[in-house]
Specification:
CATH superfamily of the largest domain in chain B: Periplasmic binding protein-like II
Oligomer: heterodimer
Radius of gyration of chain B: 24 Å
Domain Solute-binding protein family 3/N-terminal (chain B): 39-268
Shape of chain A: flat
Distance between the termini of chain A: 53 Å
Number of strands of chain A: 0
Organism (chain B): Chelatococcus caeni
Shape of chain B: elongated
Signal peptide (chain B): 1-24
Number of domains of chain A: 1
Protein name (chain B): Polar amino acid transport system substrate-binding protein
Family (chain B): Belongs to the bacterial solute-binding protein 3 family.
Order of helices and strands of chain A: HHHHHHHHH
Distance between the termini of chain B: 69 Å
CATH superfamily of chain A: MetI-like
Number of helices of chain B: 11
Strand content of chain A: under 5%
Chain lengths: 220, 281
C-alpha cells in the first residue's frame, strides 16, 4: 500500500473528516450528558422510589437494556413520527443513545447506592441529617466513586454506538469515512484511519475517567 | 332495543355521509405540498459512485442526484431547490412510507415485491452486469473470454450469488470473490484476474476515472431497471415526476440528461429522433 496517494487524499478531505469527527463527538457528548442526568433520576427512583415508581423504572431499564441500540435508533426515528413527533436524524439518534445510556447509568447507580451499608444511612439519620443532606454528604460521594469505572465504560460504548446513526443518515465519522471511500476506493487506509480516530476519542474518555477517579479517591 | 338499532343505523349513515363529503373535495396531492414548501425533499444515498456520492468538496453528486435536479427544475425552474435526506439502502422504503422524503432516487431496482410497498416512477436507467478488461490485456472481448473457457479468472464482489452470476455469462470461468470494490479492480490491475465483473455503471464510471487503461468486454446480462419511488396512492404526484423524467429522456430536458449521462458513464447519447415519438415506433 503506497502511502503517498492516501496522504494526498487525506489532506483533500481533512475538513470533511474533522466535521464527521466533530459530529461523532457531539452526538456522544450529548448522549452521555443527557443519558447520565436521566440515568441519575432513574437510579434514584430505582433505589428510593415508592413501590409503583420502582416497578415502572424496573420495567423501563429492563426493556431498554434488553433492546439492541440499533432497534432503539430506528424506533426513535420511525416510530415517533407515526405519533406526530418529527425528529430529524440527528435528534432521533441522540435521543435513542441518551435513553440507552440512561438505563445503564440508572442500573449502575442503583448498584452503587445499594452497596453502601445501611448503617451509614441510619447513622446519618441519628446525627440529624435530612435525607437530602445524607444523600449529598454521605451516599453520593461514595456512590460516585463506585460508579466511575463502569461509567467510563458506558461512555466509550456510546461513542461506539454512535456509528449506528449512519444507518439513518447522520453524517458522523463512519458515514463520512464511507463517503470518502466511495469516491477514492481506498477502503483499507481510510477505515484504519477512522479506527484510529475512534481510539483517540475513547482513549481521551478513559484518561478523563482516570483523572476524575484520581481526584475523587480518598487518600489512604 | 329497536331504538338502539335505529340509533346505530343513524350513526352509520352519518359516517357514510361524512366520508363521501370528504371524498367529494379534491384530495390534496404531494405536488401541492412540495410546491408550497418551495423545495423538494429528496431521499438518496451518499456512498455509491457514480450514483450518489460526495465529491472532494463534500457536496452530493452523481446520476441519482441529477435525476433529483431534473424533478426540482420541473417543479421550480431551479435544479438546486433540493433538500437532501441521506439514507442507507435499507432506509429507502421506510423513509418513503413514513413520509420522511417526497421521493427517493437511489439506484433502486424495480421488483414486484417493492412495487407493493411504494409506487415506482418510469425507469431512468437499465443496469446490468458487465465485464471490464485491461485495455492492453490478452483478451479482446467477451467472445475471447468465453472461448478461453476455464483458463480465465474473474474477480467479483463477494456475494451469495456471485459464482452463479458470473457462470451465467462465462460457464467455465474461475471465480475469485473479493470483499470490496477496490479489491476487484486491484485484482484486475495486478493480473490476478483477467476481467472484473460488476455493475456496468460502476465499470463505466471507473473507466471515465482512468481513461485509456481499461475497456468494456461488450456484454451485459442480469438486467434491472432503476426507478425513483414515491408513496403509494398519490397518482397526481407520481404523474408529475414521471412527466419530468420522461421529458428528460425524450423531450425538452434531454440535453441535461445526456450531459449527466456523459459525465457519469462516459457515453454520448444520440438525441431522440424527431418526428413520431420514440414510444410509438
Amino acid at each position: 500500500m503506497e502511502l503517498g496517494p492516501f496522504l494526498n487524499e487525506l489532506w483533500i478531505v481533512r475538513y470533511i473528516l474533522l466535521e464527521g469527527l466533530w459530529r461523532t463527538v457531539s452526538i456522544s457528548l450529548l448522549a452521555i450528558v443527557a443519558g447520565s442526568l436521566l440515568g441519575v433520576l432513574v437510579g434514584l427512583a430505582l433505589t428510593y422510589g415508592a413501590l409503583p415508581l420502582r416497578w415502572l423504572m424496573r420495567g423501563y431499564t429492563d426493556f431498554i437494556r434488553g433492546t439492541p441500540v440499533l432497534v432503539l435508533v430506528l424506533a426513535s426515528y420511525y416510530m415517533l413520527s407515526t405519533i406526530g413527533l418529527q425528529l430529524n436524524p440527528f435528534e432521533a439518534g441522540v435521543l435513542a443513545l441518551a435513553v440507552f445510556c440512561s438505563s445503564h447509568v440508572g442500573e449502575m447507580l442503583r448498584g452503587a447506592l445499594q452497596a453502601i451499608p445501611r448503617g451509614q444511612t441510619e447513622a446519618a439519620k441519628v446525627i440529624g441529617l435530612t435525607f437530602h443532606q445524607a444523600f449529598i454528604y454521605v451516599l453520593a460521594p461514595q456512590a460516585i466513586r463506585h460508579v466511575l469505572p463502569t461509567w467510563v465504560n458506558t461512555a466509550a460504548e456510546m461513542v461506539k454506538a454512535s456509528t449506528l446513526l449512519s444507518i439513518i443518515g447522520v453524517g458522523e465519522l463512519l458515514l463520512t469515512t464511507q463517503e470518502i471511500i466511495s469516491r477514492t476506493f481506498m477502503s483499507l487506509p481510510f477505515y484504519f484511519f477512522a479506527g484510529a480516530l475512534y481510539f483517540v476519542v475513547n482513549y481521551g474518555i478513559e484518561r478523563f475517567g482516570k483523572y476524575v477517579e484520581r481526584r475523587t479517591t480518598i487518600p489512604s | 332495543m329497536f331504538s338502539q338499532c335505529r340509533f346505530a343505523a343513524v350513526l352509520a349513515a352519518a359516517a357514510i355521509l361524512s366520508t363521501t363529503a370528504a371524498e367529494a373535495q379534491p384530495a390534496k396531492s404531494k405536488l401541492d405540498d412540495v410546491l408550497s414548501r418551495g423545495r423538494l425533499v429528496l431521499g438518496t444515498g451518499s456512498t455509491n459512485a457514480p450514483w450518489h456520492f460526495k465529491g472532494a468538496d463534500g457536496k452530493l453528486q452523481g446520476f441519482d442526484i441529477d435525476m433529483g435536479r431534473v424533478i426540482a427544475k420541473a417543479l421550480f425552474g431551479d435544479p438546486e431547490k433540493i433538500e437532501f435526506v441521506t439514507q442507507s439502502s435499507d432506509a429507502r422504503i421506510p423513509n418513503i412510507t413514513t413520509g420522511k422524503v417526497d421521493i427517493t432516487c437511489q439506484f433502486m431496482t424495480v421488483t414486484g415485491e417493492r412495487a407493493q410497498q411504494v409506487a415506482f416512477t418510469i425507469p431512468y436507467y437499465r443496469e446490468g452486469v458487465g465485464l471490464m478488461l485491461k485495455a492492453n490485456g490478452s483478451y479482446a472481448d467477451y467472445a475471447a473470454l468465453k472461448a478461453a473457457g476455464s483458463s480465465v479468472t474473474i474477480s467479483v464482489l463477494q456475494n451469495v450469488y456471485a459464482e452463479s452470476m458470473v457462470h451465467a455469462a462465462l460457464p467455465q470461468a474461475k471465480v475469485d470473490q473479493y470483499e470490496s470494490v477496490d479489491l476487484i479492480y486491484q485484482a484486475l490491475e495486478s493480473g490476478r484476474a483477467d476481467a472484473a465483473a460488476t455493475d456496468q455503471s460502476s465499470i463505466a464510471w471507473f473507466m471515465t476515472q482512468n481513461p485509456g487503461r481499461y475497456k468494456d468486454a461488450g456484454y451485459g446480462w442480469n438486467p434491472q431497471s432503476y426507478s425513483c419511488a414515491v408513496a403509494r396512492g398519490d397518482q397526481d404526484w407520481l404523474n408529475f415526476v414521471n412527466t419530468a423524467l420522461h421529458e428528460a429522456m425524450t423531450g425538452v430536458e434531454f440535453d441535461f440528461y445526456a450531459a449527466s449521462f456523459k459525465k457519469w458513464f462516459g457515453v454520448d447519447l444520440a438525441p431522440p429522433q424527431i418526428g413520431i415519438p420514440v414510444e410509438f415506433k
